[in-house]
Amino acid sequence: MNKEEEIALQLLQTKVRQLILRHGELKRETVRLENLLSDKEAQIAELKEQNAQIKHDYDTLKTARVITLANNDVKETTNRLNRLIKEVDKCIALLNI
Description:
Blueprint: H1 3-96
């Protein structure tokens, strides 16, 4: 083998070593990114569950508020009717005098 071939061979060996090192780096990076992706997917699933629970709680609170308002309206209406009945009774009493 002549000098030029030896230099070419050494250059080729250097490039192969560099490729092997780069391949190892990329492999480690791929594993790291796959782990990160898995963590993020788990986090997304957990946040979706929390979101669903919050929506359910919100709907429950809306329903409870409507029921509470309806009960207050019934109480308020009953009180108003009682006051009107008392006024009518007073008017009838005044007419009877």
